[in-house]
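Structure (tokenized):
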């Protein structure tokens, strides 16, 4: 489905074991997935680059859904908030910033955690969050799912002005969800973003180089 849509890079980022309600993968299943991704990559050859990642849960105490030794084996790590979103501002902001300071975390997914229309985002100290993104050079996601659209265009623009790298992701849970990309691009356009602001607009080798640089 990704190849048919002309995509050149696809990151497989199932939820971590820390979000069991969403079928998060155990460490054992994560290893099985790596083998399957390598098998499919061999079949597809140079048509597309497949990356194994994870959307790792930022737990209520600030720890992550996998230990560091597991995160270190992944090509790409997204850290996201899904629950305990009503914690006090200083607590939930510290959770998010703590995830950014983990050397294995590359992207913060749907940073506010909002769900449209029923759930408002967390009460974050955005100045502190954006400053931490600059400090750690962590990318921030514009989640293209119509129930997310998070970051919104206001904070996406602020992030870009500060030099934070952004990424437009579909949060696809089925092949059809890849079509959500247009919604995320709509947010990026409203934020007056340019290709230079978005990780997705880089070539596959540039993306790999960015990931290698982050991992030292």
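Design, position by position:
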């Amino acid at each position: 489905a990704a190849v048919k849509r002309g995509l050149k890079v696809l990151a497989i980022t199932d939820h971590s074991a820390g979000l069991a309600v969403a079928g998060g993968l155990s460490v054992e299943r994560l290893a099985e997935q790596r083998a399957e991704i390598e098998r499919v990559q061999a079949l597809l050859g140079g048509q597309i680059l497949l990356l194994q990642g994870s959307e790792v849960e930022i737990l209520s105490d600030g720890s992550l859904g996998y230990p560091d030794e597991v995160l270190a084996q992944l090509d790409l790590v997204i850290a996201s908030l899904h629950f305990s979103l009503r914690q006090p501002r200083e607590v939930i902001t510290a959770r998010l910033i703590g995830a950014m300071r983990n050397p294995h975390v590359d992207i913060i997914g749907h940073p506010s955690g909002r769900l449209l229309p029923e759930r408002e985002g967390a009460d974050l100290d955005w100045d502190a969050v954006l400053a931490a993104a600059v400090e750690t050079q962590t990318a921030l996601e514009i989640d293209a799912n119509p129930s997310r659209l998070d970051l919104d265009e206001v904070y996406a623009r602020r992030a870009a002005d500060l030099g934070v790298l952004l990424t437009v992701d579909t949060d696809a849970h089925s092949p059809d969800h890849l079509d959500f990309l247009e919604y995320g691009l709509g947010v990026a356009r409203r934020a007056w973003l340019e290709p230079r602001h978005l990780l997705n607009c880089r070539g596959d080798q540039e993306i790999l180089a960015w990931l290698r640089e982050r991992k030292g």
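Reviewer-requested clarification: The mean pLDDT is 95. The radius of gyration is 16 Å.
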